[in-house]
Amino acid sequence: MPRTLALICVAAVSSWGCALSPARIGMDEAQVQARMGKPETVRKGTDGSQIWEYPTGPAGRQTYMVGIGPDRQVREVRQVLSEPYFAKVTSGMSREEVRNILGRPGDVWQFPARNEEVWSWRYQEINPMFFNVMFDRTSGTVRTVQRQEEILWMDENC
Fold first, then answer.
1. Among 5, 41, 57, 58, which one has the highest count of C-beta atoms within 10 angstroms of its own C-beta?
2. Quick check: is 155 in a domain?
């Protein structure tokens, strides 16, 4: 019985990330907000375009970036917590550059003894994973990145 309850808890937590249905190309802003809600962050382009960010963390495993054109129609929808976007994060990048690629991290940790700040995103490959970006706290730039398998604990008090 405790194992069954634990599996139900894991399934419930995993489904939170799937609760949002992504927007579709051609939708207008009102349709996107009706489907996905208010974006967590809006980045405005000089041409009137916008990128709307929809992170599902810390429990979720997806972050959608919805590109809105100057005509207020959806031009692109990207789920950025995936290998092609992780590969864009390189040593020397700023926090802002990383945030523009991957969106808001699910967790942020400070390690003063190492002069390090770690941003972490949950994502799904074959197994549940974490993508971690280690920043030098002084310079605010990426030192390194790490992919780590998520270990799911079976807690009978879930």
1. 57
2. no
